[in-house]
Amino acid sequence: MMRDFSAGNYRFIPSVFQYSAGAAADDGHEIERVRFDRVVPLAEGFALAAKFIQEAGRPLTAFCACELRSPAAFSEEGFRAFNLHYVKTLSEWGIFDGTTNPVARSNVCPEIDPPSEPSFYAFSFTRPTRSKAPSFVISGGAEAREGSGTYVERTVRYRDLSPEGLREKVRFTTTSQMESRMAAFGFGWSDTTAVQAYSVHDFHHALVDELVRRGALRSGLTWHFARPPVVDLEYEMDCRRVLREVVI
Predict the structure, then answer these.
(1) 147: left (phi > 0), else alpha (psi -120 to 50), else beta?
(2) Residue 140 and residue 208: Cα distance in Å, rounded?
(3) pTM over cut 0.70
(4) Quick one: pLDDT at residue 121?
């Protein structure tokens, strides 16, 4: 399932054209995460990321993950249009080849005080290290099954906001998205340093059985009051093992 992106010193799990399912640093390299103190518009975020990466002595191809914030959930057509715009910069940086995209990504929509346009929250890149500790970033995943078909057809418990419906959404995202993606790299919850969840619904009734007992919250949970990027998706997660993180 994995492929190498040697120009960036990381490997990735192929997914759709707009992002990979996850990225992991090659031996001799580590992932550094850089979070913006305040979200910045997409074009400005790319420019600031480029400046930071180059000042660290790294090529732009070292860019391996990003976390975005959007004004509101997209329709399927709107989401595709946004993604076609987003990947243009990755093409210019020599990362996206027109078909395969190695960059991991999360893109969610804050329910309160959203940005006025798609914006950067954080990005990650690889850099050399003497440490033997692995590092990885798993892309955001929601309760939609992989494969062809519309989101309506692929969404687990579509539009079901009952307690059991939300529990099943959480369970699916935890196991079929996060755990399977980490397993492709040979990792599990015991390797993570951070887990993030995105929902505007109360999913606390599912925390103990679907997350805590699985070991997913060994480093706690950061809950963002935000929606997944496509209308009628209700719960999203991402996770990572990153030992170097900064805020700018």
Answers:
(1) left
(2) 21
(3) yes
(4) 98
